[in-house]
Specification:
Shape: globular
Strand order of the largest sheet: 1-4
Structural class: mainly alpha
Oligomer: single chain
Low-confidence stretches: none
Number of helices: 19
Strand content: under 5%
Mean pLDDT: 90
Length: 431
Amino acid sequence: MSKAVLDINEKPSVGQLITFSFQHMFAMFGSTILVPKLVGLSPSIALLTSGIATIIFLLITQFKVPAYLGSSFAFISPIVIVAGLSEAGVSVNPGNAMMGAMLVGLVYALIALVIWKTGYKWLMNILPPIVVAPVIIVIGLGLSGVAVEMAMNVNGEYSGLHFSAALVTLLTAIIVNVYFKNILSAMPILIGIIVGYIYSVAIGIVDFTAVKEAKFFAMPDFLIPGVDYDLNFTWAIFFGMVPIVIVTISEHIGHQLVLGKVVNRNYVKDPGLHRSILGDGLGTFASALIGGPPKTTYGENIGVLAITRVYSVYVILGAAVVAIVVSFSGQLMAIIETIPTAVLGGISILLFGIIASSGLRMLVENNIDFGNNRNMVIASVILVVGIGGAAIRFTESFAIEGMALASIIGVLLNLLLPGREKVEKDIYETK
């Protein structure tokens, strides 16, 4: 393993702190602002809350885990389902999404408490790859129609001009992802959006009116419970958002394992999964309290750590502070608002495809045997129920549908069907 340039608790110089903090900010920027753009929330508040959530995570993990928290793609469909999305691309009932995100954060905290008291091995039996991987595939493929619609159509009508912007964006991101080296390889989303935006300006599909009217300093668009919306619990919100924890918990554990290998630490033992999961949950809860989407640790920033070999938590803290400061830039946020939907659609084609492919990779890496009828049944039902949009409706306003229903059915099938092998090997253990 290569020697670290800066280890976990080493303090960088001022020059190093500024340089490496901005690298991490740029690495997470594209994905963090893309999620709110897709669900009709505020990019500025998403950026602000990513910084706040990261600081909370660092505090809870005792400044031992150099991870950055950004907007979670797993909750795109659930947020649209519980909050709605207008034709103008604005969230109809954002308070529902915030309530759901708070519930997700509380469930994270509950899981962290159980792990703290009983250990984590029970998770391996409830969330094996045969359940988690198909749900991940559902997340990606379930959003594929949205990505293509955004890329090709304007107001429901096909536009070759806009589709060309989507293709330029997509091609740029592919080239960066496949051919670029070093730090740039960790920023295909950001670079793709920038090139797609420049092309969009060149072909005349960007309206700069909002940028000209924007102030240099602007407050993010806060959503405060009890002020901007009524804080009401409903089972529709609960079952619309919380079952996705099945995937995000597995994603979190995977990131901790990969990160541990990169920085040569065992984060399962120290500070422990209970602390990292709690940090993720409290970050999500705090984000929702002021209007931000759910949070997750970012693989993009783990990639930056691996490339630079700068593991210092002070750099991650610096990136969080930079994100908070940038979120108050009125002109930058106005520019983000002018990004054409086609550009976002082009980058989404790649992103949602990568999400689905990561589910396939999990099946391959865990040697899932599809000659086993039990595995075939579980995966098949999850895929069709999730992608097909099946729903169980209890009332006019309460239904469990799509991805959430697929997740619940997957867990139940795994627990109830005969032939389940108890996982003995500690797959979360690292050397």
